[in-house]
Amino acid sequence: MSVPLLAFNENGIYCAAANVYLDPWKPVQNAIITHGHADHSRYGHASYITHVTNVPIILHRLGDISVYGVEWNETFVINNVKFSLHPAGHIIGSSQVRVEHKGEVWVFTGDYKTEDDGVAVPYEVVKCDTFITECTFGLPAFKWTPQAEVMADVNNWWQENQSEGKTSILFGYSLGKAQRLLKHLNPEIGTIFTHGAIENMTNVLRPMMEFPATTLITRETKKEELLGNIVLAPPSAHGTTWIRKMTPFVTASASGWMAFRGARRRRAVDKGFVLSDHCDWYSLLDSIKATGAEKIICTHGYTDIFAKYLRELGYDARTEKTQYEGELSEMDKKDENTLT
């Protein structure tokens, strides 16, 4: 029986021919990392390979590690196995990993989205034989509204709150979602204030991209300074004393889960904006078709439902368990509980 090019084991996704893991969840010798979110880039590996723009991100999050950065489409060979990284469009520095050996090509997406958000390098279709796809939002109920419309709603919401003399507090993950929101907020409306975790991460990314100016909230910041302005904060700050000192305020969350009826109520926010850094149902299907792959492996999300539908379409589709959590895992509690 032949050994598959990539196999799932207790440590992660393993390429035995190269003795390399892709986004391993337990400490290993050699790791290729798709992006900086906590479930995909973990501490403890002996060596890391990732895209050059992800290097400062994971150094900021993981500290002193041995990491080597490669460019898009740059082929690097390990034990006669060819690897290359390709844009995933998920967040800044996010990659798909292409693996080629003995005429066989596999692609591991990590997390990805196909809409160009103006921040991440846009998703690139990579032809392959076997495609390992996330399906965080792998249900037909998930169909995203174009970003331009969502951000117009966000800026209108901010202006309405300003007219009522209230502070707008917008929750988004400190890496990825926060910068996407920041990039498209209208600074002509007012001042954009930030929580420490978001400010610190954004400062890591500013050398790579221009963002609107932000003002860090400190102990000296008075609530009168915040009135009519907007605050970007991580979800874990919700309900803390840090937030309660900002009254009067209105809260909102930007997440794909806001598409679910009741999600806003469960998260105890006043407003929900449906904005995800993952594919919806339709872009998942379009992406899979574009790769030309016949074999599909579904991970993290609505795996069983999505794989079953793919089989009905004629794909050789199956599921694999991982320790990736999609959008839920993007709350980096270590960063986000560091209140300034």
UniProtKB/TrEMBL annotation:
Instruction: Show the Gene3D superfamilies listed in the entry.
Output: Ribonuclease Z/Hydroxyacylglutathione hydrolase-like
Q: Which residues form the signal peptide?
A: none
Q: Which organism is it from?
A: Flavobacterium faecale
Query: What's the source species' lineage?
Result: Bacteria, Pseudomonadati, Bacteroidota, Flavobacteriia, Flavobacteriales
Q: List, alphabetically, the PANTHER family matched.
A: BLL1145 PROTEIN, CLEAVAGE AND POLYADENYLATION SPECIFICITY FACTOR FAMILY MEMBER
What's in the keyword line of the UniProt record?
A: Ligase
Q: What is the protein's given name?
A: DNA ligase-associated DEXH box helicase
Q: Name one GO molecular function term.
A: RNA endonuclease activity
